[in-house]
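Q: what does this look like with zinc ion bound?
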Amino acid sequence: MSSVSRGFRGRRRDVGGEEGRVPPGQYVTQDFPVLSAGPTPHTPHDQWSFSVEGAITPRTWTWEEFRSLPSETVTADIHCVTRWSKLDTVWEGVSLDTLLGQADRGGMFVMAHCDGGYTTNLPAQDVLGGQAWVAFGYGGQPLPPEHGGPARLLVPHLYFWKSAKWVRRLLLLDHDMPGFWETYGYHNYGDPWREQRYSGD
Amino acid sequence: MDALDGNAIAGLLHNVFSSEMTTATGTCATCGSASVVGELMVYLQAPGTVVRCPVCGNIMMVFVRRKGMTCVDLTGLAHMAA
Ligand SMILES: [Zn+2]
């Protein structure tokens, strides 16, 4: 298993400080607040699988197969739309470049489907090129269920509702559709640096 | 994380429906179960407030506060009786 350390941090970063690393309207927290719109699923590894489908050759990995894929250690600042940011979080995960392959996905969209029914939508270009992972480790430990374990999406450059907890399936689409919070008026894209909290922002 | 009960949204419901709602009965549009509002499962720690049926777990109500307004989705609620 390969392990690559990447410094993935918010742009406008000043080395060593918080200055320039906290998007507008956010505050830095040392805690890791648990946000959830429903009960925490506890899917055992032997019942867990991860699939890609839609406009892609369908593929399903068991937990064992998924964990044997090359993984990376990712250090990232994360930004929740409820206004907290957490700096230098350390994750371990499989890059979506590995899961979605090398084909050109320009103009396509990804809908993430999760245990519990949560969904969120992202442009495919935002989850490729070393920008997104399916993370199974946090802080050197297995990702706890309340933070999305066994595995969650990690897309640090967008508000954290896009980093869907308990992700099980990525559906590749040739058109965009709103996910759960996007349906309720949250921004379709969700760039924290442009403060895209709500549709129209 | 654990859900709160429906008393956690007493103030929110009062603002939306203009009356005391925690003893009202809401009927789930998914499974048809009638539950006292105070018994519903409430998730406040999210971008919005999500209220679920205590019987089947499906979403009955979603509230999103935005710029001083509360947007309400009651499509998971078959009806509400005070
Ligand atoms: Zn129900």
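Chain B has a mean pLDDT of 92. Chain B is about 10% helix and 40% strand.
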